[in-house]
Amino acid sequence: MKPIDVGIIGCGTAGSAAALFLSRAGHRVTVYERVPDPGPVGAGVMLQPTGQAVLGVLGLRDAVLARCTPITRMICRTAGGRQLFDLRYGDIPGDRVGYGLHRGLLFEHLFRAVRAANVTLRLGVTVENLENAGKGRGLYFLTPEGERLGPHAVCVVADGARSQLRDDTCIGKRIRPYPWGALWFVGEDPGGTFRGELRQVVRGTGRMVGLLPTGFGPGEGPTTDKISLFYSLPAAGLDAWRAAGLDAWKREVRALAPAAEPVLDQIHSADEVLFARYHDVSMYPWNDDRVVYLGDAAHAMSPQLGQGANLALWDAMVLAEELAAHESLPIALDAYSRARRSHLDYYQFVTRWLTPFFQSDLAPLGWLRDFGFPIATAMPFVRRLMVRSMCGIAQGIGIDAPIALPAPDPLPRLGATA
């Protein structure tokens, strides 16, 4: 494929990574971001081996990991102390480890690289609709003010789970907000007490507290460990949580997870605690002849497996590979959807199946989880599958081979002729 004009909507993880891959491959790239001055916000996320590998291809891995915290295991216990699972990266072959980091750190490094790249960046621009520009001319991007932007040969939609641009194609889809979300707080862990482990404590299916080591945070400032505390909460219960007051919530969290005490002591106002609600987005394929969806715009899911950012990075890399491998744009986009199907189908299926055992009003599922998970994780095959799933490399429940991680070498450039 010769270089083409690419318009990317959204400058989050998927959009920024796609902009870097495609501009480095020789395409003409314009990124539209509705926020006038985007900055590093959010809470803790997990950077799995898949995401690490993609950052390695982009040349950003070492700089990002320098401010992350290595995590070697994920532990979940009941409030009564029963261990449900203790998953270690070392339980499968390969020298793998996860990293806890602040979402803003990942954004900061990707966005800085986009600014330095051969990319046209349009900030403070909202794209409301797409319009066919005529035979062979691509697509116009329409703003709420009626301005036509472009045309671009291809549109990459990467504006998140709440994207309003899925209705601009005829792709079948289902978008459903999860009834549950989570409260988040990022605090200080100056002694590194929580390093090395993602800890979760559950009581039934309605209560869950987690502690995720979150590295040093964005910026170039002091290297003080951060820790993200998260607490499961129904979206409909947010107002009641605020009305009950901070002290009542702290007492409940302490009762569930006494280790959270030093983090809770840092919270002085309910305004310091963020609420994140999640969506379940199902669509296939993720493309038509001129439009392709990446990241949460294509396949948002519950964060139970902690794969959102990693899947978004992998999407961007595969899109660039397929565009480099085919001369025809529609064929390349179809190949992208086929290439991503088994990987994404697996994580969406497992996430939908797993979430009600940890976040729902179905109390019997909590009893079944507390009884069955310790037995399941003691089985070598199940344990290996769970660890591969944690790493981001699984793409099937049976004997399907895990996905291969790329070496940190740049993708080849496209032909130089225009």
UniProtKB/TrEMBL annotation:
The keyword Transport does not apply. Keywords: Monooxygenase, Oxidoreductase. It comes from the Bacteria. InterPro entries: FAD-bd, FAD-dep_Monooxygenase_BioMet, FAD/NAD-bd_sf. GO terms for molecular function: FAD binding; monooxygenase activity. Pfam families: FAD_binding_3. Residues 5-343 form the FAD-binding domain. The keyword Oxidoreductase applies. Gene3D superfamilies: D-Amino Acid Oxidase, subunit A, domain 2, FAD/NAD(P)-binding domain. This is FAD-dependent monooxygenase.
